[in-house]
Amino acid sequence: MKTKMQPKPPTKATPEGHVRVLIPADKIRLRTAQLGRQISKDFAGRELVVVCVLKGAFVFTADLVRRIDVPVTCDFLRVSSYESGTVSSGQVRFEFDLTQPITGKHVILVEDIVDTGLTMDYLLETLRARHPASLKVCSLLHKPERSKVHVPIDYLGFTIPNEFVIGYGLDYEGKFRGLPYIGVMTAPRGKG
User: Fold this and answer.
1) What is the mean pLDDT of the chain?
2) N or C: which end of the chain has fewer CB within 10 A?
3) Could you give the residue numbers annotated as active site?
4) What is 144-175 written as a DSSP string?
């Protein structure tokens, strides 16, 4: 009996090296539209504050809010748990806080990736103390293999394996945020 060969995931060359496509742009667009419809249904008749966790979630947040059909305001915050490179330090630092109060408001916190859960746990604890009417989490990606703390993800784009991903807002040392897909670096320029 012949077994079907799985097609090899496409690899794309960038100025910095080769990237294996993990989630193509068309699948991201489709899933973002589905999430926007679900959020619109769940918050019908209510105003919503979408809080983007900078920097990685900015592309996803921009596409997501265009797919939500209820009144939306946006705010931003920035925390850091990566000193440099590909491994979280485990220490969360606030670098930029919200500009508007969220007391009594319906809030969706939008993140690029829930990895260990430590950052999201910290953010949820911090924002709950500000007494929103509701607080939900929307994450483009989740790596359950890396979880150290369970956090609720109410709206999830994709579950991925334990690989360091780039593209669609996610970076490696500030690069690759503009890629239209989620990928994995396979060979940095000059190393293969």
Assistant:
1) 88
2) N
3) 115
4) GGG-SS----SEEEEE--S--EEBTTB-BTTB
